[in-house]
Design goal:
131 residues, globular, 5-stranded mixed sheet, two-stranded antiparallel ribbon, Fructose-1,6-Bisphosphatase, Chain A, domain 1, single chain, alpha+beta
Length: 131
């Protein structure tokens, strides 16, 4: 379990670095089908996080990826849940109020989860149960 925890922390830290690099420059904003905003930082941080988490061979449910149908996902014993840039509107406003979120779920119960607030350099990791 500690290996997974360390991988998720490193993924969040590296995603945060990528986000801040984009945050400091001009960036393009697109719209998703649901009319929510999508930036280069959403995509880039998602790519970084997935690169780390894919090494665990545990499936990923993510905000910025094409997810498997629920009929498949409901069979998974363990999975990652990721929002690589939570607060895209705040990112666009440049108010610093955005996070990187990564959690591991086992048997439908959160095992641990954490967030990184890149602009404030704060991280919180929370163990959710006694597994």
């Amino acid at each position: 379990m500690n290996d997974y925890l360390n991988i998720s922390i490193q993924a969040a830290i590296e995603a945060g670095k990528v986000i801040l690099k984009i945050y400091e420059d001009e960036f393009k904003v697109d719209m998703k089908e649901d009319k929510s905003a999508l930036t280069e930082a959403d995509i880039a941080s998602n790519d970084v996080i997935n690169t780390y988490l894919e090494t665990t061979k545990i499936p990923i449910i993510g905000e910025e990826i094409k997810n498997m149908p629920f009929s498949v996902r409901k069979q998974w014993k363990t999975c990652w849940i990721v929002d690589p840039l939570d607060g895209t509107k705040e990112f666009i406003k440049r108010n610093g109020e955005f996070t990187v979120n990564i959690a591991m779920v086992e048997d439908g119960i959160p095992v641990f989860g954490g967030y990184l607030c890149p602009s404030f350099k704060r991280t919180l990791l929370r163990r959710c149960c006694n597994r």
